[in-house]
Amino acid sequence: TQDRVEITENNLSSDIPDECKGNFTYETFHTVLQQLELKCNEIYLSYVSELVVPGNENFTIWVIPKINSLEKDEWGYESFLLDKYILLTDTGTGNIVSKYFQPAAWSSDAYRLAHINIDTLDYRLNDSRIFFGVHSGYGTSSSVNPGGHQSLELFALQDNKLVSVFEYTTNDYRGENDGGTNGCGWNEEYKTHLFVTDHKINGFSDFALLTEYRSIETKNYEVVQDSLSCDSVCFYSYTPRGYTKVNKIEGTFCREIKDGWGKRECFYFGKTLPEVYQIIYDENKENLQQYMLPELPPEVVEYSRKDNRGEIRDSLTIYYRYRDVNDLVIEFATDLGSEYTAFEEKQGYTIFRYDYHD
């Protein structure tokens, strides 16, 4: 996520009306508003943001929230409704290249709108050179009943037109506490990750949404319960109507896990544990294959690596351990340490993990 462009001495002057000052380039903003036939007092300026497209400086992304309705109560708290303008402009001239509009897109009342940011993302769902997200977050003002949620809407430039590709909730949390009286309370959080596969339909990648659930309970300022689990996995493929939830997808997604150890995790969608075991065996002739059995054993196995004469070559011992029928761990143990691979089959996909531990 990129921060908003700060006001500089070059774009902040006495010529700028107070109702038009904000964290953006005023001259370009003024040009954009003229094309939209809007005035500054029609815009909720604190949520305006701009960002030059990374790797393509000819274009700039703008988020313009137009006030649809706004009310203040007797204590000065605002409730409002905002229309959504997502723009792609020519960086040099400020001319609008493409526009996406949605009326009454953002609201703020009991759950207050906390932020709207442009997210450059670290993935692509298609081959569009311009692909980005708009991230928004909401929260309550209560300290004893905290809660809120965040969402991400994905945009791509297709046929010179900005389109909304997909939108989902990235985070949802709630809790309750005694306000610090006895240090007691609880909170729960749902956090959703988007995994893009290497399988495409009509130029768009399949993807999965994996939601993790975490629950924490405290008593007397101490954590007495902390659990983390996978709450759900949903699959999506592209259709003429856009992305649609499906029962099964294809493809692979891999990521490095940076926690001080060498770890790699791959999701093989549409594959069973035996199928993924064979893939890993066939693709790793220079390393893992020399330690793995050519065929997946159906039960627990322990053996030592031997040379061509049948003699033990070194102190390496390999253990195949099934935690259940769909959960296999292979340990390669030596006097210096151990390496692990793990295969875990889920509904519709299998996870392969490779971990090194001293």
Report the portion of residues in β strands. over 45%
User: Strand pairing plus helix content: what structural class?
Assistant: mainly beta
In one word, what is the shape? globular
Q: Roughly what is the average pLDDT, rounded to an integer?
A: 86
Number of helices, counting only DSSP H or I runs of 4 residues or more? 2
Number of strands: 19
Order of helices and strands: HEEEEEEEEEEEEEEHEEEEE
> Rounded to an integer, what's the Rg over CA atoms?
26 Å
User: Into which percent range does the helicity of residues fall?
Assistant: under 10%
Task: Give the end-to-end Cα distance, rounded to a whole number of Å.
Answer: 35 Å
Strand order in the largest sheet = 5-6-7-8-9-10-11-12
Question: Main β-sheet: number of strands, strand sense, barrel status?
Answer: 8 strands, antiparallel
